[in-house]
Amino acid sequence: MKLRPVLTIRSRLMLLVMACIVPASLMVAALIGYDYFQGRSQLIRESIAMARATMSTVDSELAGTQTALSVLATSPYLASGNLAAFQAQATGLLKSQHVVNIVLIDPGARQRQVVNTVRPFGSKMPAGVVPGLERAMIAGQPFVSDIFVGPIAQKHLLAVGVPVFRGDKVTYALAAGVLPERLLELLRRQRFPADWIVVIFDSRGNIVARTQLPARRIGPKRAHDPTAPLAEPREGHVGRDTSDSSTISSAVQ
After folding, report:
1. Where in the chain are the domains?
2. Which stretch of DSSP H or E encloses residue 103?
3. Residue 240 to residues 64, 208, 234, 248: CA-CA distances in angstroms?
4. Could you say which DSSP state residue 96 is in?
5. Residue 99: its pLDDT value, please?
6. Which of 28, 51, 100, 178 has the least CB density, counted as fewest CB within 10 Å?
7. Cα 161 from chain centroid?
8. Degrees, nearest 5: CA angle 157-162-167
9. Rounded CA gap, 70 and 66, in Å?
């Protein structure tokens, strides 16, 4: 008959200690994991809510400019062809708007500027292409362009515009130039946490405003920029890995 080994008092004490520690350790690990995922879920909800609030603020700013332009588009000076008086009226409107200029554009193939509030009336005006203007004019709808370099200012701008009608025909586009710095100001008013990077993209994925290193990042998207938008933007949360093996969580709106 084979005898079973007898545990020493030391062995029994070690087993007793392990029996107490292991379940407690597993419970602590489970609680830490649960707390992490709960905190992460809360952060995601807060991020999406802040993204919604931010875009609502930006949309309201641009919509206010569109409304002002829509009123200006009904100017009797435009109807009568008195463009010098119209330019004076448009210049007066600048005082109440956060825009750099107001431009009246012939929406033909070269999009020739007819009036620009930063140039004396009658000056030689440049031609240039405002992204999305031709499509918006065909549809007869207000528009917000993608970011582009203004032909006079030679700075990155967004154009907020409306069509000018004569009867049922679109005769001009009336647009205002918005600097990215204005949208950056709106972002900073939201008081995001210091370690967050908040970015506004245009419809082509180009950076319009960015809270971190804004002056160096405006314009066409960088191929390796970890804040680059999704191929198909949608509201929600996105996790992605960067080249240095860190993980970025993004709230998309």
Report:
1. 38-61+182-252, 69-179
2. strand 101-106
3. 35, 21, 15, 5
4. G
5. 92
6. 28
7. 18
8. 155
9. 6
CA dihedral 99, 101, 102, 103 (to 10 degrees): -140
* The model's pTM: 0.70
CATH tag for 69-179 (out of 2.130.10.10, 3.30.450.20, 3.90.480.20, 3.40.50.2300): 3.30.450.20
Report helix, strand or coil for 66.
Answer: helix
Q: Which residue has the tokens 């008092």?
A: 9
Q: Work out the number of other CB atoms within 10 angstroms of the CB of residue 127.
A: 13
Supply angle C-alpha 198, 156, 99, rounded to 5.
Answer: 90
Nearest to 119 by CA among 150, 164, 76: 150
Tokens of 229: 């938008």
Q: Quick check: 174 and 83 in contact, CB under 8 A?
A: no
- Which residue do the tokens 């990215």 mark? 180
- Residues 92-126 have pLDDT tens digits of 999 888 999 999 998 776 788 899 999 999 888 88
